[in-house]
Amino acid sequence: MAKITHRGSWIQVSSLNKEDKKNYLTSITLFFVGALFWGIHLTSVDGIFGPKLDEDVTNTTFYHVARALVILFWAAAAFYQTKFIKSQDEFMQRYYLYLGAWGGIGFISFGMLLSILSPYLGFEVGFYECFIAWGIGTGIGGYLFDKKYIRHG
Question: What pTM, to 2 d.p., does this model score?
């Protein structure tokens, strides 16, 4: 079974058996390849990375293919991640649920805080800002899981 390391933020890949390692690394690789195409997509929308590019540029076959590849790679990543999680013990499954719940808490609490402060700070809250809030919540959740269940702090 997987060993959780780095204060709840990482899985020690060397602790996995051959099949789990294959599923986990395939999932992570597919996610990162999809993220490259997602980065291309981000240039075509308003967000924290600046204003979107001209419509004539972003409404091309290149951008349509990049968006389709995000969906394709992330769907495949989800498939392999699900195979990985299903083969893990209850403790590891609890870890994933804990991270997901804390991601939701971060999305709501930090996202709401950003939304409330946005008129005073002069920016508009969108999906990507709330995604960052979800990531903050997930990081907090990993730390708290480590403290509560691994280190018994």
Answer: 0.78
